[in-house]
Amino acid sequence: MAAAGPSVFLLMVNGQVESAQFPEYDDLYCKYCFVYGQDWAPTAGLEEGISQITSKSQDARRALVWNFPIDVTFKSTNPYGWPQIVLSVYGPDVFGNDVVRGYGAVHVPLSPGRHKKTIPMFVPESTSKLQKFTSWLMGRRPEYTDPKVVAQGEGREGGNTEAAIPKAAWICLPAWLTLSFCPQ
């Protein structure tokens, strides 16, 4: 009797980045990417993308609406390293340079069905007054060279020479993204 190979399971992610609330900013766009464990592999769809630029709606909510579709399928032999979606939001500063306005990450829902996730967003801050002054003078705010670090526990603390995340940033920044996941 021949030994059977490892069985795999599929995870289909079908949804959209609906909207965001960034009260102080306008004309923003969104990038997404997935972070997953070594036993996971994408089999169909795009594992990263970039949206169009959107302006605030004219209603009372003043929401930034993207309705940015996401459709990707993963396979794995092990649930360890369940996929997370990492979102980065960018927009112009006063000099017209694209700067990061928020980072956020959330695990793909574990159960099938419709899910709506609201993701708190944060921005990194300079670790010293000299770095803050230099970034203001040059018009370049701190940002991650690889946004996937947002989904990992290590590499986000003060040891990061580019930026450190203040402990209160998750609470203070009034920016939220909404994701919707739908079954196929």
TL;DR?
The protein is mainly beta and 184 residues long. It is built from two helices and nine strands. A five-stranded antiparallel beta sheet has the order 3-5-1-9-8, with no helix packed on it. It has a four-stranded antiparallel beta sheet with strand order 4-2-6-7, with no helix packed on it.
| Helical proportion, percent range | under 10%
- CA-based gyration radius: 18 Å
Main beta sheet:
5 strands, antiparallel
Spatial order of the strands in the main sheet?
A: 3-5-1-9-8
Average pLDDT works out at 80
- Ranges with pLDDT <50 over ≥5 residues? 158-175
Oligomer: single chain
Distance between the termini: 37 Å
What percentage of the residues does DSSP assign to strands (E)? 35-45%
Order of helices and strands: EEEEEEEEHHE
Sum up the overall morphology in one term: globular
Global structural class: mainly beta
